[in-house]
Design goal:
With 116 residues, the chain is mostly helical. 85% of the residues lie in helices and 0% in strands. The longest helix is centred in the first third of the chain and has 27 residues. The protein is globular and about 45 Å long.
Length: 116
């Protein structure tokens, strides 16, 4: 049981750092992120709401006791990371590894959240 908790907290902590870095980029490097979103073909007006959604998802995973809300947060991140991975593949910018690492951490966090 102790090993499961350690794995959960390490995976979720690393995932949190990755998502906070991403959301921070959206807020503090808006111009660079806007160029990236334009290359993907996404509208730039979703950058700030997307950053807020990422932060709210982290809050749900860490602090909300309602299991349904946590499931939705994990599902939202799952789809976001899948879409990010394939968006990077489609424009061939070679930046898909971040999304892949995030997906692996997310799956580990989700599996071990069920075990503890």
């Amino acid at each position: 049981m102790k090993k499961d908790k350690i794995i959960y907290f390490v995976a979720t902590g690393l995932l949190t750092l990755l998502i906070l870095f991403s959301a921070g980029m959206y807020f503090f490097n808006h111009n660079e992120v806007a160029v990236m979103f334009t290359n993907f073909g996404y509208p730039t007006y979703i950058i700030y709401p997307y950053a807020v959604a990422k932060i709210l998802g982290l809050i749900a995973i860490w602090f909300v006791a309602n299991k349904i809300v946590k499931e939705w947060a994990y599902a939202g991140f799952f789809f976001a990371f899948i879409f990010a991975f394939f968006a990077h593949i489609m424009i061939s910018d070679g930046e898909q590894m971040g999304a892949l690492v995030a997906m692996i951490l997310l799956v580990i966090s989700y599996i071990y959240s069920k075990k503890i």
